Amino acid sequence: MKNSTCTILLAFLLYSLVFVSCSKDTSKLSPTNTALNAANSLKVAPIFLKRADTLFSSITELYLNGMPRDIWSTNYPRTDGYWDGAAVIWGHGAAFSGYTAIKEAAEGFPDYKSKYESNYDNRLLTAIDQFRNTRNGGAEAYAVYPGEGDERYFDDNIWVGIDMVDLYMLTNDSKYLDRAKLVWNFILTGTDDIMGGGVYWKEGLKSKHTCSTAPAAVLAAKLYEATQETPYLQSAKDLYAWCKETLQDPNDYLYWDNARLADENDPNSEILIAKEKYSYNSGQPMQAASLLYKITHEAQYLTDAQNIAGAAYNKWFIPFNSAVLGESFQILEPGHVWFQAIMFRGFIELYKLNNDRTYVTAYEKTLTHAWLSDCRNPGINLLNGDFRGGTTQTSWEILHEGACLEMLARLAALERDGL
């Protein structure tokens, strides 16, 4: 083997490909440091992209194909009900977020990219646009169900808006930016100076929530990145500041649920705080702070994001020994899977700033164990809500399966990029 090089392909649980170059000529030794270079050189998909694609194929077959109006169903097995069992915009949006994430993860892999573009780009945009209305002559927005008179929630719309601006930055196609701005214009109708700021949860209600205000800050920051229009940045700062001042628990850095006036008719009455804590309500301020640090380089934002991350990790991960992986690690505790997917966005945004992989690795091991264990039903490739496995489940919700797709796809993008 004089001056010859051999390539050894090793397959692992967590990484798609690792290439080691072997040569007697040490000057030619160039071990590949990332899965990205190896995978892209042969156009072989990372293992998490393969898993995400498998799940995407399953949910389109089980929840979408054959549905009236070609919109996602709520459950598998499908059930009859309002709008023929169609998912509300929250569940529909979760599936759309999964599609958005896997479309981004497919960059660099032409077969996957082409499949998603040709089969799903127009189809899924047409489907979600059926939810748009101008109820009572108001600003156009995405309603709970298709129909001109159906009600609209501000938080439901923000999740769609975030996906749209992400798709715009991925494709540079203005139709996505137009929809993101449509959502933003609707969000502005849900803001005022009562209680000092914030975003209402729903048209007509008087409570202002972390789940509407923090992601609104994320959307504003992303719109600033997409357009460089400074009003978006100022809005992101203002919304983040209000949420932190009003709804963050100063004792542990986690976020409470919502604020409302003791007397809805008296704007000067006491502000009452609902102190429930949900994982996504800390994940979104974490992402907003990370984005604001990336844009402004103001150190306090990074400190804020790191404080939230440590507290969220301590609260929503538990020790676990995986027989499948042969190791112990911190796994996501049983809980609301969609909340956990939204929290993951914050951890990823922070990881790209500080290179501390602790939290991303915990998600990676959680989803790897889930996929390889009896958490996944091998007949239909859907994941149960308890990622530890060992539970029996007979019905699966698109809200949760869309969230699983999103998490797998985000791990695929990290794997592709060698992160």
UniProtKB/TrEMBL annotation:
InterPro entries: 6-hairpin_glycosidase_sf, Glyco_hydro_76, MUG_Protein, O_gly_hydro. It comes from the Bacteria. Keywords: Hydrolase, Signal. It holds the Pfam family Glyco_hydro_76. Coiled coil: none annotated. Gene3D superfamilies: 1.50.10.20. GO terms for biological process: carbohydrate metabolic process. One of its GO terms (molecular function) is hydrolase activity. Residues 1-23 form the signal peptide. This is Glycosyl hydrolase family 76. It comes from Olivibacter domesticus.
